Amino acid sequence: MKKIRPGGLRSVSEEGAVLRISEAAFPAPFAQVLEFNAPVHETWNIVHIGMLVPDCHQIYVCSDNCMRGVVLTAAEMDAADRFSCVLLEEEDLYEGSLEDITVEGVTDAINRLPYRPRAVAVFLVCLHHFVGTDAAWVYRNLEERFPDIDFMRCWMDPVMQKTGLTPEQKLKESMFRPVRPLPVDPGLVCILGDNQPVDPDSDLAKEITEAGFTYLSLQQCRTYDDYLRIGAASLFITRSPSGVHGIKQLAKRLGRPFLYLPPSVGAGEIREEIGELRKALSSKEGTDLMQAGQKAAENALDHALQLIGDTEITVDYIANPRTLGLTRLLLEHGFRVTRIYIDAISPEEKKDFDWLRSHHPELILNSTVHPKMRVLHGKENEGNMLAIGPKAAWFGGTARFVNLVEYGGMWGFSGVEKLAGLMEDAFLHEKDTRSIVPRKGLGCACVL
Predict the structure, then answer these.
(1) Distance of CA 343 to the CA centre of its chain
(2) Cβ atoms of residues 431 and 404 within 8 Å
(3) How far apart are the first and last CA of the chain?
(4) How far apart, in Å, are the Cα atoms of 402 and each of 98, 144, 425?
(5) Which of 6-15, 127-136, 191-200, 367-376 has the lowest mean pLDDT?
(6) What is the pTM of this model?
(7) Is there a contact between 60 and 422 (Cβ–Cβ < 8 Å)?
């Protein structure tokens, strides 16, 4: 892509930041370079996620330059009373043991609290990696000092973002480590690892309840005892790619079955996932309900297409982790999708990647973090398009967008049906993009 756009004092080409899918390498279409952080913050960060555990206090051990973001997140959530800091200074690195400083700092923070938390999530950081901190020793000492508190071993280490488990994946394992095995409740299913609560109207929720089970998610837990009840589940489910590692480890530790049911949108994948769920639940529902759900989803898409017509549509990876599958679904139903904002492609979407390359080779893949994107984006209300996802809206400069993060708890054919309705609403009603997309953590408590 050699297109040139004006940018400040000089012109900037799209090369390196924008390419056709026919030219893209799988799974990394763009080179890793210096990254741009767009002012779109609707995804959840580790503070938002950790706050899901009730009666849990978060303590971050870090220097003040990195502390600003997490402190502001806690304040924006009106949850500053559940958040503490242990500030590290330069002399701490050469005048003493970082292990001792961490233990004493966390101890002091706990002793200063006006209440006794049931659990404490202690976040170590990049500095602890750099100096080779014995993290296991740190936590052993804290557990000996506070035997009545469950400690969650967490990390805020963005320098490790590109290697191994991400901070979010590590957190979604650590935050369930205090869960102890309880006698199995054969009627209880836990849906965990997802930031957005499951939509009660989703096929997932309905399949579970119609099979005679009750489902429990972390978002439903109001007390720490509610949280510990997770240990009684007969089945664990996650819809989130970032939740797979942690929830799978939880299920393995407790000796319970586990299902990964991502928010797929293709009819074949949805039918397959419903089949897996029914098998795990020993449900004998027939295919008629699936056929009715699929028909309703297709009718909703047809109705949306009649309204939206050949309007240009862009999609971003924030809206649904099955970004390429969503793009394929829309293209197969006649929508004019022209561009996907995405930086890496999940191995789970290899089939959809190959299909799009074969059937729509001119489809554009657009990086969101390439430094050129600081310039290569539309001005407010410039784009005459419909965007699905906040980053697609901001980069395209459009006020017509579906404000969706991680598929908003939707799942199955009912999710596709709801998405079609959201697209119609976005087409008919403009939003104030500039004021909406910078807000952190769509769907969580916010005082802004």
Answers:
(1) 15
(2) no
(3) 40
(4) 46, 49, 8
(5) 6-15
(6) 0.93
(7) no
Query: Half-sphere exposure of residue 138, counting CA atoms within 13 Å on the CB side?
Result: 25
Give 171-201 pLDDT, tens digit per residue. Answer: 999 999 999 999 999 999 999 999 999 999 9
Say if residues 394 and 377 touch (Cβ distance below 8 Å). Answer: yes
Closest CA to 404 of 347, 323, 344, 333: 323
- Token pair belonging to 49: 């996620």
pLDDT(320) > 80: yes
| pLDDT tens-digit readout, 244-296 | 999 999 999 999 999 999 999 999 999 999 999 999 999 866 567 789 999 99
Residue type, 156: M
Measured CA to CA, the distance from residue 82 to residue 59 in angstroms comes to 9
Residue that is written with structure tokens 């039918």 in the block: 271
Distance CA 316, CA 343 (A): 10
Q: List CB contacts of 96: < 8 A, sequence separation 6 or more.
A: none
Q: For residue 428, report the phi and psi dihedrals to the nearest 5 degrees.
A: -85, -25
- Closest by CA position to 138, among listed 150, 151, 126, 127: 151
